[in-house]
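User: two proteins, same treatment. go.

Assistant:
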Amino acid sequence: MFVIYLSGIDGCGKTTQAEKLAARLNEAGFDSEYQWLRWEPSIVPLIKKVKRLLGRNSRSATNSEQLKAGENADHASWNKLKKRLLAMGPIRWLWLKYATHDYFGAYKRVSPSWKADYVIMDRYLFDFTIDQSINVNMPPEVLDQKLRSSAVGKMQRPDLSIIINLPAEIGYQRKMDGTPVEYLRQRETSYKVFATGDNALQVDGTLAVDEINDIIYSWIVGKIGK
């Protein structure tokens, strides 16, 4: 199995590009499939309850500017709570232990169903690393090294990585789904950490959909071409 990782901030068009890439590779004779595996914590119901309690600012908004400010304020409250808790060594250790085992458990459940020669991953291991690096206030490249000895270190790492770069403000305007622009800003530069070297590609997410797809497809075929 050859893993091609494709990601970027919300709104960059990664799902569209991953699906189009899988379809084009299949048409060209490369046995490919699209998969999605972002970590969804088993304690999501509890997390949602806490977020609802902290989410008063966005709920009281009456226009788009108030909504944007409210979402950022709610996100800041949630971040402040997480940072306060995860600044405590024992809690941080327990959280990372839980998170890595929980995500690896999801990987073990679904990865046996991946049968194609080339698996196009929309969200995967590096998304998990970026999210946790923000949670524990650690550079993503440093946490990536530490996680190699954890449960997620047993997951297959991407053979090729593609990051679609997009300014957070544009991603926010495209999505408008309740994701705070501050949340996107936190992740905007982190993705570039995982798009360096000969086996990685960065693409301008402001280009037209077909133009982005042509760039990605040409690069991939150049790497795996028969």
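Protein 2:
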Amino acid sequence: MNPASRTSTAATVVLVPGLRDHVADHWQTHLAARLPGSVTVPPLTAGRLSRAAQVAALDAVVAAAPGPVVLVAHSAGVHTTVHWAVTHDRPVRGALLATPPDFDSPLPDGHPDPATLREHGWLPVVRTRLPFPSIVASSSDDPLARRTGRIAALAADWGSRLVDLGPVGHLNPASGHGPWPQALRLLGELDGATFTRREAVQ
């Protein structure tokens, strides 16, 4: 779509972290610093493993936005986003969904097991087409998504365009990744009007 044909209202960028505390060198932290007016869903101090609590926290941030939003989710935040998307109806321009974990398979030590994920509402994984444009950015060596083809299948179920980032681990500092410059380009592809406007005013 030609950016000029979009509404003139710039979207608010909402960053949706996974089940983590604030991490200064995480790419979402760097991205938030580069995007004035963006909002990050704050980490929960209680009930962090609760899918319902995570979805409610995301909805509170989106509801407070002055207009449409663009969602930028990472890790379990991707699953928060898709659970939210199929149960809420708010204006969304698009979503960048980076390295979603494969919750249908056992995760590495230190992460919730399938029984815990089910108990807290994360399973079954949403397989419904999302009601807005989306891009799934996948890693070829993500330790949280080791089964071949799993993330591609999720992207297809969600109606998302799949972008293979190559061997970037889980796209986090533990994998040796801080800033992720490609995020801005992918966001521009989702909502060129908003990001062209941001570049013009910075």
